[in-house]
Specification:
single chain, about 90 residues, alpha+beta, 4-stranded antiparallel beta sheet
């Protein structure tokens, strides 16, 4: 399966490289777009869950790395309580 790294800039200006085991993440985000933190988490959850399900269908096991990436995104998002805070998806790397 084609892996994708999506690079995001958090509201505190830190940059994170996030892993997806599938290109499905590109259907949930657009490069250069900013998303409210809560929406970013929801989209990440949808994309990474679907990506993991694709791995399960193909290989017979879910992607633990996608689950770990989602947990990290959820953890980091918890630090931003301001509803106006946005996460920018800067780019996709293949």
């Amino acid at each position: 399966m084609p892996e994708v790294v999506f690079r995001v800039r958090w509201p505190d200006s830190s940059v994170q490289r996030c892993y997806s085991p599938s290109t499905v993440v590109e259907e949930h985000f657009a490069a250069g777009e900013g998303y409210p933190v809560a929406e970013f988490v929801e989209r990440s959850r949808a994309a990474l869950t679907l990506a993991s399900e694709r791995v399960l269908a193909r290989f017979g096991f879910a992607c633990s790395r996608a689950a770990a990436q989602l947990a990290d995104i959820e953890r980091r998002a918890g630090a931003f309580g301001d509803e106006s805070a946005r996460v920018v998806v800067e780019a996709f790397e293949k």
